[in-house]
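Example 5.3 — Septum formation initiation protein
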Amino acid sequence: MKKPSIVQLNNKYIKNENQKKRFEEEESQKRNRFMGWILVVMMFLFILPTYNLVKSYVSLQEQNKQVTTLKKEYKALDKSTEAEKKLAKQLKNTDYVVKYARAKYYLTQEGEVVYPIPGLLPK
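Solution (predicted structure tokens):
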């Protein structure tokens, strides 16, 4: 193999130029490292609020589901309360109480025979 015919001079100028080049490379690496750290900090500054925002959104969706289920339960309870109020109002009528007792508890007077028919219970 043939040796290169170029010989590098090792004088003061070359040494100064090499030293300048190394210094510039080190400065460039320091700048790049600094910019990298700034980038990492910026990522954290954007990631943490985004995480909190997503967490809040999920919590809000769960609360909305709870609200809808509670509204449904409220409507069902409201209907049953209305039915109970209606029954309580009807139970103030003595004729209705007699009918209700005969139908629900099969109460009879002497000599009567009761034939229960499903679905005829007063409501």
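Remark. DSSP finds two helices and no strands in the chain.
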